[in-house]
């Protein structure tokens, strides 16, 4: 009886795998892997207290010393009270998906620390 159940499980697994294989490779097509582009958004405070904002992508590198200037350089028309949500909504409108955010503190010896929030975004590359 145990052997029959084991054979049935193996048969079900084989059937599932063959269906997946036939769906993936039907009509002689090969499955192309998804390609991604990545970007970074950084904001922080320098040791002297100055702020910085920066967005870096494969086609863009924009930086500013205050959020108003940064929003203007990105051509953001509608800002809200949360700077992060303003940026996240703006980038999301262009297909950028937030992957992660983390805070880092970099010690610069006697000069002090640089504190920054670093966010990574990804966007699917569309083939033309």
Key phrases:
128 residues; alpha+beta; five-stranded antiparallel β-sheet; 5 strands; globular; disordered N terminus
Structural features, described:
By secondary structure, the protein is an alpha+beta fold. It folds into two domains: 1-31; 36-124, no CATH class. It has three helices and five strands; from the N terminus they run αβββααββ. A five-stranded antiparallel beta sheet has the order 3-2-1-5-4, covered by helices on one side. A hairpin with a 4-residue loop joins β2 (51-56) and β3 (61-64). The longest helix has 23 residues, at 2-24. The chain is globular and about 65 Å long. It starts with a helix and ends with a strand. Mean pLDDT is 83; it is low at 3-8. Keywords: Signal. Residues 1-27 form the signal peptide.
Provide the fold topology.
Layout: H1 2-24, E1 36-45, E2 51-56, E3 61-64, H2 67-73, H3 83-92, E4 97-107, E5 113-124
């Amino acid at each position: 009886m145990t052997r029959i159940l084991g054979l049935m499980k193996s048969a079900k697994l084989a059937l599932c795998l063959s269906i997946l294989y036939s769906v993936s490779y039907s009509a002689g097509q090969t499955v192309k892997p998804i390609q991604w582009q990545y970007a970074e958004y950084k904001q922080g405070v320098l040791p002297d207290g100055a702020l910085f904002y920066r967005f870096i992508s494969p086609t863009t590198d924009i930086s500013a010393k205050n959020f108003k200037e940064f929003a203007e350089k990105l051509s953001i028309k509608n800002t809200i009270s949360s700077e992060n949500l303003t940026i996240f909504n703006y980038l999301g409108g262009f297909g950028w998906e937030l992957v992660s955010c983390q805070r880092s503190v970099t010690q610069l010896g006697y000069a002090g620390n640089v504190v920054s929030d670093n966010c990574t975004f990804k966007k699917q590359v569309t083939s033309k």
